[in-house]
Design a protein that fits this description.
The complex is a heterodimer of chains A (about 290) and B (about 90). Chain A has 12 helices and 10 strands. Chain A is of the alpha/beta class and about 290 residues long. Classes of the chains: A alpha/beta (about 290), B alpha+beta (about 90).
Amino acid sequence: MSLRRTMLYLPGNNPNMLLRGHLFRPDGLILDLEDAVAPSEKDAARILVRDVLCRGEFGGCEVTVRINGMDTELWREDVAAVVPAGATGLRVPKVENPRDIRLLDEYLGEVESQAGIAEGRTAIFCLLETALGIWRAYDIATASPRVAALIPGGEDLTADLRTNRSADGTELATIRSLLVVAARAAGVDALDTVYPRVADDEGLRREVAFIKQLGFDGKSVIHPNQIPIVHDIFTPTEAEVEKAKRIVAAARDAAARGLGAVQVDGRMVDKPVVRRAEFTLSRAGLSGEVM
Amino acid sequence: MKTASAGTVESMDCIVTASEADPGSGVTVQIAGASAARFGSAMRAAVLSVVSKMGITDVTLSVQDNGALDLVLQARTEAALERLKGGDVA
């Protein structure tokens, strides 16, 4: 399981940030060809992002590209440029129809085959930025086996809901819960939208604790300073890791002895608890400890 | 004379301006900016490799560098040349 606690947006026409973003050690990078790039610079940004991808120095981060929307003329050229150059995932804005994901899946197959890339390598990250997109979340997530994650929109979505973003995120609470349910039902990750107030560390901390409790796997970030805060909240404490290790070890021992029930610290532990412990270890970067 | 540019004045970037040149006049590259004195010849080679890859024989290129790596220099050169070729003049 690859960690996606933080995925850092980097403006696609800014060499400085594209080349240095990985140094802040997020789990993933999003090289942005959409909103961060002025319409007159789309061509130059596409070439730059392609060449930065070809260089391939990202310090182990998962590298995705936010392409332009499928309601524009630009998305095919974006895909044709960045997939052969090494992008292993595409973040697609304003998805609201499973048909678009099937179309993208098909086109990706063509591009991968022409470039000699294993078919299916490129994952799809769906940004759901309208009420319709949220409503169809499960159908979108299951429209292609390439779909790796669902991400709710922030500003666009609240505008579509005819409200605005508040400090406590009341307007997004139900949306976020729905999205986690759809993502889990489809077997994909749930990644949260950005926290726009980059100077408000406490606000970010509160929001990340809230979305983690809802079941999200991570959050998109727009400033390097947000990375350690999100990692801190998503990384299990030493005590949690130790307990998880004991639970997994006890479950392994019980399985080896042909026993069904497991006891840890004097308490019976059932399957969901073992699964949660395995998940805690994965989140701590200790997947090797997982059965 | 038709010209087209690509790039910005931000650090680690450069602005490449491509101008049409008369047939037979060849490729001219002028480099100015932070690294021109020390790395001018390597930068010129990086720019020329893009020109040659694109099969262009007559063009004048002017680079205003602000600490761009070769890959950025090449990306901006390609964008400027594509814009010159396509009439998308920025």
